[in-house]
Amino acid sequence: MSDPVAATGPLVVGTGVGRTFGDLVALDGATFTIPAAARIALVGPSGCGKSTLLHLIAGLDTPTAGTLAWPALGPQQSLRPLHVGFVFQAPSLVAPLTVVENVELPLLLEKRAPAEARAAALAMLERIGLADLADKLPEEISGGQAQRVAVARALVHQPALLCADEPTGQLDRATAKHLMDVLLAAIEGTATSLVVATHDPEIAARLTKQWSMQHGILNAVALPTGAP
Known about the structure:
By secondary structure, the chain is of the alpha/beta class. It has a domain at 38-51 and 79-218: Rossmann fold, CATH 3.40.50. It has helices spanning 50-57, 99-109, 114-127, 143-155, 173-187, 201-204; strands spanning 12-21, 24-34, 39-43, 65-69, 84-87, 161-165, 193-198, 209-214, 217-218. The strands form two sheets. It has a six-stranded mixed sheet, sandwiched between helices. Strands 2-1-4 form a three-stranded antiparallel sheet, with helices on one face. Helix 2 (99-109) packs across helix 3 (114-127). The longest helix has 15 residues, at 173-187.
């Protein structure tokens, strides 16, 4: 996998970013920068605002306060699927499509030639060890396999930024470890930045930076225990 973007500046810059839902303050005044090749764990208890922040970073939502920009990527409306990949807590595969059809979908949305999209999807499935499932439907594979397919779909277009929202939250310990092995191996040596929202300290410890959240407040960046 080649570097997805030749970044000449930060991928994401947030200044005083806030998000409210009615009277609920989900995110309050977050200021941060995400450079290329970052490996960030966004940690904190359930309901602290991790998913809200991750959706804003990925351009899936718009802040109600502050400013949010993607200097190296372009305007919000152009972020997905070209520049930003997203892995949800549940696999979110398209049920009528086969595994390979799910993986090639972002490329087809980018108007890639069908043959090129299919070749790239098959190569990504091979890379993460799921080539033998290419013709299976989502209902025919396990939850762990489905989440790995979702990772393949998020990575197939070589995004500059990959956001993962509790990607191991519904998996057992062994399957969760394997998923992270696959994810980190897939972006090793690339400029893809990874931001993983998690409440699992073992997952957080595998990344090189940690952002901590409490009650909608993003705290100072710190290195997690055991990080290189």
